[in-house]
């Protein structure tokens, strides 16, 4: 293997490790504030320390990992100022994305997103017939807004941090149940082609998530992300089929 091939292989391995460690952080397998020891991770994944170091650098670059001089890297803890800053940006950009989606999404895309949202709800209620996937309602709406600049900001390197904060804000099962209904209301406004209502509903949805996250942060500075699946005390009302929305 020549030098170029070795470099390409190292980059590919670093990318795979970045995604593997990111998945552990998102799932709560690595908790906020936990140290990321290069030697430990190298043994865990059966690789050398070089790709681990590269993966940690990438995580640091997107704000999920912090490192003090001469200290180990750590998974970032929630910071109230950072939460406010990110949620301010979400209110502005995701609200705008919803308004654009109301004018740009076609009927088939809306129907498909309604179906995917209902599947996600059933999956989180523990339905064994629904296979796991990586569905993200917010990212789907951003893509359907068809705004390259909004997509670049919210769907680029900042996306893993935004998604993790969203999961932290949904750490209480009752909040996640309500969030599904809010998602459905947003889609209903989009289907009605009411851009102002869609924007307003998304802004309200994000503000509720912000308040929920701040409440959870006040209770525990090291809250974990919400688990991938849960059983709420009371099941959420089913989302209406597409022809009833």
* CATH hierarchy: architecture of the largest domain: Up-down Bundle
User: The biggest beta sheet, please?
Assistant: 3 strands, antiparallel
The unreliable regions are 224-245
Q: How confident overall, as mean pLDDT?
A: 81
Assess the beta-strand content as a share of residues.
under 5%
InterPro entries: GntR_C, TF_FadR/GntR_C, Tscrpt_reg_HTH_GntR, WH-like_DNA-bd_sf, WH_DNA-bd_sf
Pfam families: FCD, GntR
Domain HTH gntR-type: 11-78
Protein name: GntR family transcriptional regulator
Write the layout of secondary structure elements.
Layout: H1 3-27, E1 35-36, H2 38-45, H3 49-61, E2 65-67, E3 73-75, H4 80-104, H5 107-124, H6 137-145, H7 148-154, H8 159-169, H9 173-191, H10 195-219
Antiparallel strand pairs: 1-3, 2-3
Helix pairs in contact: 1-3, 2-3, 4-6, 4-9, 4-10, 5-9, 8-10, 9-10
Organism: Gluconacetobacter liquefaciens (Acetobacter liquefaciens)
GO molecular function: DNA binding; DNA-binding transcription factor activity
Biased composition (Low complexity): 225-245
Give a verbal description of the structure.
- With 245 residues, the protein is mostly helical.
- The protein has ten helices and three strands; from the N terminus they run αβααββααααααα.
- The protein folds into two domains: 3-75, Arc Repressor Mutant, subunit A; 80-244, Four Helix Bundle (Hemerythrin (Met), subunit A), CATH 1.20.120.
- It has a three-stranded antiparallel β-sheet.
- A hairpin with a 5-residue loop joins strand 2 (65-67) and strand 3 (73-75).
- The longest helix has 25 residues, at 3-27.
- It is globular and about 55 Å long.
- Keywords: DNA-binding, Transcription, Transcription regulation.
- It comes from Gluconacetobacter liquefaciens.
- This is GntR family transcriptional regulator.
- InterPro entries: GntR_C, TF_FadR/GntR_C, Tscrpt_reg_HTH_GntR, WH-like_DNA-bd_sf, WH_DNA-bd_sf.
